[in-house]
């Protein structure tokens, strides 16, 4: 993650906490990340040096019209500092900082098929046992892992996928 993005995110979080608006800003930041991820055009516009700042501001103002004042101030600051290309990284950093502040984290579970509610509950319990923190589960479907799961929490990863086990067996047989 870009250090400048982290600094912007910390500044916004500090301001939002002073105004008791950190949750509202977090919701805005999630919306920004989702909007950029879902719209290739929005992503390209933010990165483009050719598109004028005024045009970028107009687009962002209409897309995030209901955003908290801290969020709109962040966008204005990024525009005036010619750092709008960092918006996605700042938003991502903010959500991570917000989760840390609340003692929560995101557990990404990659499976070949969607998780059932029962399995989701077991994953949450295991994450709490391992890290001592609450977590939200994001389920990523990837049929190439064949079965099992891959759990990623923060910088830790536990790979219990069938594909990984097959690769280990393959390596063992090729070494002998």
In short:
The chain is of the alpha+beta class. It has 2 domains: 3-100, Peroxidase, domain 1 (Orthogonal Bundle), CATH 1.10.520.20; 104-175, no CATH class.
- What's the count of strands? 4
Dominant shape: globular
- Biggest beta-sheet profile: 4 strands, mixed
What do we call the CATH topology of the largest domain? Peroxidase, domain 1
Instruction: Work out the radius of gyration.
Output: 20 Å
Count of DSSP H/I helices: 8
Report the CATH architecture of the largest domain: Orthogonal Bundle
Helical fraction: 55-70%
Function: This protein is part of the stalk that links CF(0) to CF(1). It either transmits conformational changes from CF(0) to CF(1) or is implicated in proton conduction.
Main location: membrane
GO molecular function, one term: proton-transporting ATP synthase activity, rotational mechanism
Subcellular location: Cell membrane; Membrane
Name its key features.
single chain; Peroxidase, domain 1; 2 domains; 8 helices; 61% helix; cell membrane; ATPase_OSCP/dsu
Characterization of this structure:
Strand 3 and strand 4 form a beta hairpin. The chain folds into two domains: 3-100, N-terminal domain of the delta subunit of the F1F0-ATP synthase (Peroxidase, domain 1), CATH 1.10.520; 104-175, no CATH class. It is globular. The model has no long low-confidence stretch (mean pLDDT 88). The relative contact order is 0.12. It has eight helices and four strands; from the N terminus they run H-H-H-H-H-H-E-H-E-E-E-H. By secondary structure, it is of the alpha+beta class. One of its GO terms (molecular function) is proton-transporting ATP synthase activity, rotational mechanism. It is a peripheral membrane protein. Its main location: membrane. It is found in: Cell membrane; Membrane. This is ATP synthase subunit delta.
